[in-house]
Amino acid sequence: MRDKALLISGGRLIDPSQGLDGAFDVLVKGGKVSWVGVGKPPVEDSARGETPETVFPAGGMVVCPGFIDLHCHLREPGFEEKETIATGTRAAARGGFTTICCMPNTQPALDSRATVEFVLRRAAAEGAVRVLPIGCITRGRQGQELAEMAELAEAGVVGFSDDGRPVEDSRLLRHALEYSLSFGLPIIEHCEDLALSKGGAMNEGVIALRLGIPAMPAAAEDNIVARDIGLAELTGARLHIAHVSTRGAVELVRRAKEKGLKVTAEVTPHHLSLTEERVLGNEGGPSIHAYDTLAKVNPPLRTRQDVEALIEGLKDGTIDAVATDHAPHTQADKQVEFESAEFGISGLETALGSLMTLVHSGQLELGELISRLTTGPARIIGREGLGSLRPGNPADIVIFDPEAEWVVEPEKFASKGKNTPLAGAVLKGKVLATLVGGQFAYREGSGKLP
Amino acid sequence: MSVTEQERRVVETPIAPPVWRHRHILDVDDFSREEIGLVFVTADAMKDILAREIKKVPTLRGKSLVTLFYEPSTRTRASFELAGKYLSADVVNVSASGSSVEKGESLLDTIHTLEALGAEVIIMRHPQSGAPYLAARNSKCSIVNAGDGWHAHPTQSLLDMYTIREKLGKLEGLRVAIVGDILHSRVARSNMWGLATMGAQVVVCGPPTLLPESFSRAFPVTVERSLERAVAGAHVVMALRLQKERQEKGLLPRIREYVSHYQINRERLAMAEPEALLMHPGPVNEGVEVSSELTRGVQSVIDTQVTNGVAVRMALLYLILGGRRPVARSEDSARPPGPDSSGFRSGEPAEGGRSQ
Known about the structure:
The structure holds two protein chains of two kinds.
Chain A: E1 6-9, E2 12-15, E3 20-22, E4 25-29, E5 32-37, E6 54-57, E7 62-65, E8 67-72, H1 85-94, E9 97-102, H2 113-126, E10 130-133, H3 149-155, E11 160-161, H4 170-180, E12 187-189, H5 194-197, E13 202-203, H6 206-211, E14 215-216, H7 218-235, E15 239-241, H8 247-258, E16 263-267, H9 269-273, H10 304-316, E17 321-322, H11 331-334, H12 351-360, H13 366-373, H14 375-380, E18 397-407, E19 426-436, E20 439-443
Chain B: H1 5-12, H2 33-50, E1 64-69, H3 75-86, E2 90-95, H4 107-116, E3 121-126, H5 131-137, E4 142-148, H6 154-168, E5 175-179, H7 186-197, E6 201-205, H8 215-218, E7 222-224, H9 227-231, E8 236-239, H10 245-248, H11 255-262, H12 266-270, E9 277-279, H13 292-295, H14 302-321, H15 350-354
Parallel strand pairs in B: 1-2, 1-3, 3-4, 5-6, 5-8, 6-7, 8-9
Helix pairs in contact in B: 2-14, 3-14, 6-7, 6-14
């Protein structure tokens, strides 16, 4: 069956890859972007009068390339009670993400061709959006010996990471960086000095002191960021710093970039918007709501000063991408004592609304935000065809209302992970439709999900 | 240091009639000065009961209390158990070892089981900070925190303050030096809040690994590194227990070095006010935090703390179970002990706490 053409009309198109921000229409045909412009699409590209294209009226809305998430946890295989590829990709579609990179800390870990191919097969069969796996750096994420990185690259991974933990052995990490030079794929590091952070369950500071919670200092992150940058300089390889959360780490990445090193970085929506005080509960101060495990995440929520430095880094390009670090967990994983609770926030479905707070408050331009969700991450994984609405590219498109307010209701998430500290919050900025390859992966109010 | 009856009344009479609003006792950081004062006057009445030959009143007859201890404890658990029994409540003790906890039952499952068994109050001690908050959010029972991780030990703080008030007649304007492993101490944390609320000036002292400088930003206290300066002019010197594992974890070079710099001994205690109180939440490592000669010395009130603990816990159990009931309904099971049956002096504290 031949797809009908779709004209997305009357919206504000923002495509940083082409430097576009204005009243442009987009014509989608055959799963690809066929035309972007003003007025009537050229005749040869329209449906020649006989089968007029479907029109999506996008007045008052923003139309932009689908978002790319460099960092999420789909939990399959191994932890299907937390999330599956089917549910995680639907959550992504609802959040406006058309491509997501899943981390390899599954069970078994994605350290072999077989496991990577399993994920790709599952995603092709059941996924609502594109899934690009990230492979392990070390076998079984054990930090002992390198995973078969060449085989993983052939299987289709877009980067390597032992996410959840760093490669502790500096020599082994050096070799991983060197070895990665043959494929040009980034080594993605979770930067945490495990000796310093040992036993820690939140940021070290005044709140942890008050609550008596063992804490991890910002220096635990900064130390490993500094070490890794040193190794990137030594090897000339590509290093990507996952979920930067401290002012110190932002400054280290900034200096590395000034030196011309191949270092990139990402930041999460929660580190851009929440602070350690959220562990006290929604009300702050002494209350029964303290020790809120929904605010337990690694790296931990930091201080106001860190948040400001992260926003500044995102704005000046020190930080290339926003990545969700979507980490779904069951209620049983979170309804326990604070130190026993799992780390992580279910973030795909709240990302845009949460990030739009920065735009509405004037801290970030809308175009800057979109570039960090599209061209920024696309460049890091070397898929510039994604994250761009240049004619000929796949029609991965998100349409959102920047002014629409909505209440976060986790029980309505597509994700199995209802674990968000934003439950009940009012966010301004709502995804209305997400297209992957020209097909609706999500459309607001369409009832049942595709 | 006796206190005249008039002074005593000034201390005891709440400025404004307080209304008891705590269903749970999680920490003292949300207690007002009036509420702490109410605990004190209620404990005074309980102390009178304890002085009697038959120290038992029917006040909490028909109420069920469970002590749920995930950490070993002698004095706190026994103190709560006796407090409940002197008030005629049924008390059951559950400890993590030998219970379903060892079979992997979660805290909330355990709480719900105890609730289903009919417990009205769960008194819990847990090695993780905040565990009682989780329980309180998810239970219909009253949760009493008998110590959670490094975070809080509200009943210890209240009995410490009660003991100071009893011995010195007041808390306001006193200088209290807390010495030792502040970082890992739930007793210190609760006392910092409680004492500050009551108008005392708190100085904390210890080595930087056990007392980060940022404590002065997190709590209403002054951080002092020199023990001599911390103790100078203090009305109360409180030493904390030092766990041997602090040395193993590299926080201290040697216990011996700690002793030479931070032990409360005769010379150091002499720098405090004459007749200053020496306190310790126990159990004491003899010869470590406090020199052996002082532990049982004239200035030591360590045993009084333990005795007062029972009265203060009786007061708290009474307040959370009976104290909230309206006067008109006080004839039934939660009957406040009247002068004839219990030794409460007339007019207080039962009514004082509830309806005035």
